Here is the input.
Amino acid sequence: QAVITLKKVITLLNDIKGTNTWLCGDAFSLADASAAPYVHRINNIGLAALWKDKPGIDEWLNWVTERVLAYKLQDPWGSESFHRMVSGHVEESRVKIERLLDSLSI
Here is the structure.
């Protein structure tokens, strides 16, 4: 159920973004800053396939990541140790994640 909800959120973000560079038009906004951590986390847990048919989301995530990293914030997406822990679990679960996504026709 959670993955289906995430897919709906990604679809909504894609629809809102449309052909714009950012979620609310041609300028980075609070909408981008608010959505970015969630989409970044979805990507980190191995669920980027949720937007494989929505290249605008991948582009947007790259742009927003570049923008956030330009501020040189310390750990803008969480600590490095947290990322290592999550990455380890993602690798352990990759086959299960792929099966789950396939079963949902995502």
